[in-house]
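re: that chain from earlier
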Amino acid sequence: MEDNKDKKSRKKTTIETKEKKPSFWSCILNGIINENPTLVLMIGMCPTLAVTTSVSNAIGMGLSTTVVLISSNAIISLIRNITPDRVRIPIYIVIVASFVTLVEFVIKAYFPVLNEALGIYIPLIVVNCIILGRAEAFAGKNNVILSIGDGIGMGLGFTFGIMIISAIREFIGSGAILGHSIVKEDFRAALFVLPPGAFLVLSFLTAIQNKLKLPSASNKKEGCNGDCLNCDIHKNDKVIKEEE
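^ sequence. v structure.
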């Protein structure tokens, strides 16, 4: 009797887990809204704080990161079943570094001004927490379609987040948007284009999110604690694979 009960409970867990399996579109929306890497999870903060002095820089960094995310997620998902567990992280880094190098060459060839503005932060995409985090937490555990959706969502979420920060910093600090001057020099606050300005804007945005009870790093919705590696959904998936 006890064995039958155990089997039934396992079947229920399997069914519930399958129902929780995300769709392509839910992966995209998740990265943009629920687990926005900049405004909710607050990962990959180095480029967020460094390149958000102007909207054009933010768009360039965001799109570059999105391309790398989509490409690396797709390849890592394709080889996930043949990748030895002991060397998966070095393999992930090699894959990510390859795509970052391609993106860097394209930017240097066709967008020299953007390349000069972003500087070292383009090659540093290789060690961006968002890239390696999604490779380990999602792409290494899901199929190609879902992994591409996750890459699109996280990339667009990152781009959207740094564009908001850069627009506020550029408008208040430089009195301009996309290089077009709007505010007179006497009414500009130069502090916002300096490093402390990035922290101030990010803290104000988080305060607004908390006030409006929106998803944020300090105001998480039930069911997601921002810790993807220890997520209950992933744990259940692992248990089902072991049972099979």
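The first helix runs from residue 2 to 19.
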